[in-house]
Description:
Distance between the termini: 16 Å
Shape: globular
Radius of gyration: 11 Å
Helix content: 25-40%
Low-confidence stretches: none
Amino acid sequence: MTITFNLYSSEGCHLCEQALQLCQQAKLEPSLQVVDIVEHEHLAEQYGVHIPVLERLSDGQKLFWPFTQQQIEELMH
Length: 77
């Protein structure tokens, strides 16, 4: 399946772990790529104080934490 969503996160971020669990519950995982912002300076600058952030790659629409499973499911459609 094609990657259609990025979850911007960072290792050791407990909110990011919660967001990933919500993505898994919404069955988003096959089309999800988790991106560690620490590995990309521009992403760290852009999302450093906002992670986790879920982005739909087709149009750049983003969900900023806190978000719910229902919001993830709406973003999927």
